[in-house]
Amino acid sequence: MNQATISLGKKALFCVNATLLTAAGYLWYNHADAHKPIRITPHIAQEHQAPDPRTDNLPAATQITTAPDTLEVLVQKPATVDPRVTTLTLKGFDEYNALVPAMLKVSDELKSNRIDVPSEIIALTVLTETSGKTGRDGKYRDRYEPGFQRRYVDPLFDKWDKKANGYGLHMVLEKIYKRMQEQGSEISKDAFKAMLASSPGPAQVIRLTAYDDGFRGLPNELDDNEVNLRCAAMHIWRQRHQTSTVVDNDEGQHRVYDPRLVLRAYNAGNVDAKPTEGHVERGMDYWTQLQKNTLANSRRR
């Protein structure tokens, strides 16, 4: 064996050893890398600074950070949406849709106190009364009803003026009027009467009716949407014996409202009185839309 052959053999052996060492190093790196822990967290951190072969298959929207011994995959937790919001939301009714969370809140709070007025019934009332729409000034109309004043408000003030004895709604109104004066209001009794016979807010609750149902705030507080919705729900609850029935199911007893009767009683005062022409029919059109939403949501689940 000459010197050239020996030199060639050494070179070949060196190349083989180098290849083996490179392959071993690659296998060691990947083996060690594969055993590094992966920690998933439900929040977003800063984007990684350099590409990492371990994250090649992650979705493009996923952001990651790396630490010496940890690969941290940070996944954004999807926002949860109450399915009832989708059920009550109507296309093209932006102002009404903005009220949906308040309707759900009022319904849930009352239910916790064993006052069962479903959010869809509150929504039906708002849609039929105002469609959730405000005027150019961003406020709901404050509708004055002179016939209501003559029939219900004026007789109460007659008792007030005569200083009638005993507890009654006329005494509640007198206290409210005094509170308004103490807070600097210069409203006259005649203006106060007209205010009591007016219906503000998204559900168009007549102020005198709200006081009769237990509301004890100042009249202008009914301009607040949530207060207005709560008073509307309380009025619907007071009329429940005319407009609903109690049924039994696997979960126990619950109240089922007849939307036609709710619309009739809310508008006319009771189910036997005659409502405004077209009121019930308009409301039932809205009810059909809400029921379509309910059906569509049930199919998605």
Q: H/E element string?
A: HEEEHHHEHHHEHHHEEHH
Number of strands: 7
- CA(first)-CA(last) distance: 82 Å
Strand fraction: 5-15%
Q: Tell me about the biggest sheet?
A: 3 strands, mixed
Helix content: 40-55%
Question: Please, how many helices?
Answer: 12
Alpha-carbon Rg, integer: 35 Å
The neighbouring-strand order within the major sheet is 1-3-2
| Shape field | globular
Low-confidence stretches: 23-29, 31-49
- Overall average pLDDT: 82
> How would you classify the helix and strand content by structural class?
mainly alpha
Describe the structure.
About 9% of the residues have low confidence. Helix 4 crosses helix 9 and helix 4 crosses helix 11. Among the domains are: 44 residues, no CATH class; 140 residues, no CATH class. It is built from twelve helices and seven strands. By secondary structure, the chain is mainly alpha-helical. The strands form three sheets. The chain has a three-stranded mixed beta sheet, with no helix packed on it.
State the gist of this model.
54% of the residues lie in helices and 10% in strands. With 301 residues, the protein is mostly helical.
Structural descriptors:
globular, 301 residues, 12 helices, three-stranded mixed beta sheet, single chain, mainly alpha, two-stranded antiparallel ribbon
Secondary structure layout plus pairing:
Blueprint: H1 3-34, E1 38-41, E2 63-67, E3 70-74, H2 83-88, H3 94-112, H4 119-129, E4 143-144, H5 146-161, H6 169-182, H7 189-196, E5 198-199, H8 207-212, H9 225-238, H10 240-243, E6 244-249, E7 252-257, H11 259-268, H12 279-300
Parallel strand pairs: 1-3
Antiparallel strand pairs: 2-3, 4-5, 6-7
